[in-house]
Amino acid sequence: MAVRASLNLTRTSFTHEATINWFPGHMAKGLKQMRDQMRTIDLIIETRDARIPLSSINMEFERLVGSKDRLVVYNKADLAPIEIQRTVQEEMAKRQQRAIFTDTNKSVSQILDVAVDIARRDPVKYPQFSIMVVGMPNVGKSSLINALRRTGVNRGKAASTGAKPGVTRAVSSKIKVFDKPPVYLLDTPGVMMPHIPDTMTAIKVALTGGIKDNIADESVLADYLLFRLNRLDHINYCQTLGIERPTDDINELVDMLARKIGALRHGGEIDTDKTLQFFLKAFRQGRFGRICLDDLDEGAVDEFFKSSLLEPPMSKNQGQKAKRAAQRLRSLERAKAKGLI
Ligand SMILES: Nc1nc2c(ncn2[C@@H]2O[C@H](COP(=O)(O)OP(=O)(O)OP(=O)(O)O)[C@@H](O)[C@H]2O)c(=O)[nH]1
């Protein structure tokens, strides 16, 4: 607070009205495939992003999980503050969700321990043990599967990974990750909610890479990131980016940063897109330090669950609207890919 006041950073709220939705056809199809496979599954690993412990909860998975055993894995823990881990685990435990934090570049053996322990307790029931890994796009499901395979059977990459959301497009075939007892995993496509009820949730998901940037509007994402860094007193972005001073104004930041990184077109005009992308990438790579974008103060988690669970399912009309919007988006993407627009 004192830091902000002395630096004249005065913004206290952030609003953005436009809704952001991304639910292409492969997600709806993937969700159906997951439901079809569910009776063969013994454990669901629901992967979330540690930087947005609440915003990466997809209520679609609540319906999918039903009464199955579930382990919540908060991945990308290397990018989130360590001190949130205990709060999140306690809050999830209150809701009967066992949560662990992982970084796929390090050991993920605690996940295997959970699965192997369940399987060994009842070998008759589990001659083999099947796990389905679900989660929003880009939370690191495929990376997690590769890490589990590396740890469990010392074998190489089985699932494709990528820095952009939507790499995995369909439910995979079974991937072996442990020998005795045999444990198999299914990779699944990242799935968003068909209709994201709250714009701030959508912005946070997009900022952490869960929604394609061109859908979410990079200038809005960067503006929110700047607002959040200032609110958290994370003024170190100036040093990291090599700019003269912190600012609350995204245009001023773009101006300083573009000159610093040389994002200029012929004639010296600023390349805004390139500059915004540079700023977003620096955050996603963790260059501004460990950051949590969700508020986890007392009451905030209760409030989140209360509002999410009360959120009525979409009406037929809303559902059709969302479907049409998704179709329009797909046609637009196809036209763009063909260079027609
Ligand atoms: N910093 C960090 N990056 C990670 C971690 N796990 C995965 N990533 C990176 O996150 C990006 C997405 O990883 P994927 O494994 O492709 O994610 P996914 O959930 O399978 O993505 P979809 O195909 O969209 O469903 C990649 O660039 C990974 O290298 C992690 O623990 N820490």
Automatic annotation (TrEMBL):
One of its GO terms (molecular function) is GTPase activity. GO terms for biological process: mitochondrial translation. Keywords: GTP-binding, Mitochondrion, Nucleotide-binding. It holds the Pfam family MMR_HSR1. CDD domains: YlqF. GTP binds at residues 75-78, 138-143, 190. It is a peripheral membrane protein. Residues 31-194 form the CP-type G domain. One of its GO terms (cellular component) is mitochondrial inner membrane. It is found in: Mitochondrion inner membrane. Belongs to the TRAFAC class YlqF/YawG GTPase family. MTG1 subfamily. Mitochondrial GTPase involved in assembly of the large ribosomal subunit. Plays a role in expression of the mitochondrial translational machinery. PANTHER family: MITOCHONDRIAL RIBOSOME-ASSOCIATED GTPASE 1. This is Mitochondrial GTPase 1.
